[in-house]
Amino acid sequence: MSNHPKLLIGAAILVVMALLPLAVYPVLLMKVMCFAIFACAFNLLLGFTGLLSFGHAMFFGGGAYVAGYLMKAHAVPPELAWLAALVAGAVAGGAVGWLAIRRTGIYFSMVTLALAQMAYFYFVTSPLTGGEDGIQSIPRQPVLGFINGADDHILYYVIMAMFVCLWLLIWRIVHSPFGQSLKAIRDNEARAISLGYRASRYKLLAFVISAAIAALAGGMKSYIFQLASLTDVGWHMSGEVVLMALIGGIGTLTGPVVGAAFLILLSDALASYGEWVVVIQGAIFVAVVLLFRKGLVGTLSELPGLITRLRRPKAKSAEKLNKDKIITE
Amino acid sequence: MFADLFGIPPQALLGQLLLGLINGAFYALLSLGLALIFGLLHLINFAHGAIYMLGALGAWVAVSGLGLSFWAALIIVPLAVGLIGIVLERVLISRLAGLDPLYGLLLTFGLALLIEGLTRVQFGASGLPFNSPIKGGINLGFMYLPWYRGFVVLASVVVCLATWFAIERTKLGALLRAATENPDLLRTFGVRVPVLVTLTFGAGVALAALAGVLAAPIYLINPYMGTQLIIVVFAVVVIGGMGSIGGAILTGFGLGVLEGLTKAFWPPASSTVIFFVMAVVLMVKPAGLFGTTK
């Protein structure tokens, strides 16, 4: 397939994104983009490596705290603070991943959840994080020294540029030989190992990349909202990013973006109902897992195939037998 | 009679040890239920903590709202919650049979959010008071033991041992163990495996609710008491492995005591010591202390 239609679609999306702030509150859009990056980073693990991390808030929140602390306490310019968040996320991801990949499947999820809770306790008690209050009123210093980040409309384009670059980076990773190896490990780890792939190394590297990008998303978040708080590192946030990827479609590249947009806009619309938001999130979780496992994008991308399948008699293919597996043992 | 141990007065040490035993009792009860459910359903029940919270809340409703005695609640609430569990298994969880266990984790996480969210809407997040059903205590000379706390440790040991006995030494337990090994073979012998599965889930959930009722007079009842606990219990499960019922009980009590000792000697580390042990176990023996599989 030639790249022309894809390029055209991409260009059209960019034009729409550039015009969106004229119609929608830019801070809300920036929030969507932040969480979309977070969800894409998370999905690099679940969708393309088959690892369900239930503790990804520790990287997102950790990045928010690292960047927020540097910007507030030491007046570090944002681009350096974001770089620091990225590096911190990579280091933390290396440590956590090194421990967690010793177990597979649900045990892996439980280990990441427990380690994230350990990190949470650290952030509650550390003298640097402001305890229950978090780090508030983080200054918005100029980006790269000359871009006025204090203006939401200008900042929007900075965040948009970062979002596009990071999404393309993740797209590049997934379509690289490294990404293909990850998929091989996801689909059949034993076979990949027997072919000579060092599965543990691949998994660890995927975990480090995912954690680093998640931490960068957190750093961007603390700049946009001028706040880093315990909400960003709690287990609720870990669950929320899982839900974003699930709604959009696990194992798709656009899914997490759609899922993040859906959930953020929904929470925004329901903000006046306060305590019901969690109930609705729980209900969506249950409904999606039971009825809609492929997610929005996953279901849409199957439509053309669905129509041809309706015309032809069904054939049992290996793909069909594996259709409901995230991970193969 | 007792000299100071490393500069810790014996009252403080024994007091923390008792608290550790009580915490350990809850870890053991919850990880027991998790192991029971996992063995047969291949499901990690994320909602286990929320169900424990329901148990505590149920005790509060039964005693403060309906005017029942605590001892009646101790019987009625776990049975009622067990019934709810049976309905949940039939209506929702059974639909995921044969799928990747991760879906079960996601579904039950959603259930946990639902249960906690609804509780918060109905009762607020501030916590509910609950009076101890047994007043007073005994002065043992070296420490003061409130009767109720002693009862909790005793009750949980009895429940754990009874569960262990039921699974390891009775015909029903033999069926359960056979069903975890080879459900298809059991079906050919005419055993109704789906019924067994549903009842097992109900029993595991009832155990969590029982723990919740026991916890009501000790801890503050609030919507999130369960999830904070279940994350620790997950670490306990990773440390012990889910292969054996006895292992789950021992690991639960052992880690509770370890936590208590840490609180006596170095308080700041007490909330993370179990996670730290989990990290060490992952490095040394990734399958867990009692684990056999990968």
From TrEMBL, chain A:
The keyword Transferase does not apply. Keywords: Cell membrane, Membrane, Plasmid, Transmembrane, Transmembrane helix. It is found in: Cell membrane. The chain crosses the membrane at residues 6-28, 35-60, 80-99, 106-123, 154-174, 204-224, 244-266, 273-292. The keyword Manganese does not apply. It is a multi-pass membrane protein. This is Amino acid/amide ABC transporter membrane protein 2, HAAT family.
From TrEMBL, chain B:
The keyword Ribosomal protein does not apply. It is a multi-pass membrane protein. Pfam families: BPD_transp_2. GO terms for cellular component: plasma membrane. GO terms for molecular function: transmembrane transporter activity. InterPro entries: ABC_transp_permease, BCAA_transport_permease. The keyword Lipoprotein does not apply. Keywords: Amino-acid transport, Cell membrane, Membrane, Plasmid, Transmembrane, Transmembrane helix, Transport. It is found in: Cell membrane. Its main location: membrane. The chain crosses the membrane at residues 12-36, 68-88, 100-119, 147-167, 195-221, 227-253, 265-284. This is Amino acid/amide ABC transporter membrane protein 1, HAAT family. The lineage of its organism: Bacteria, Pseudomonadati, Pseudomonadota, Alphaproteobacteria, Rhodobacterales.
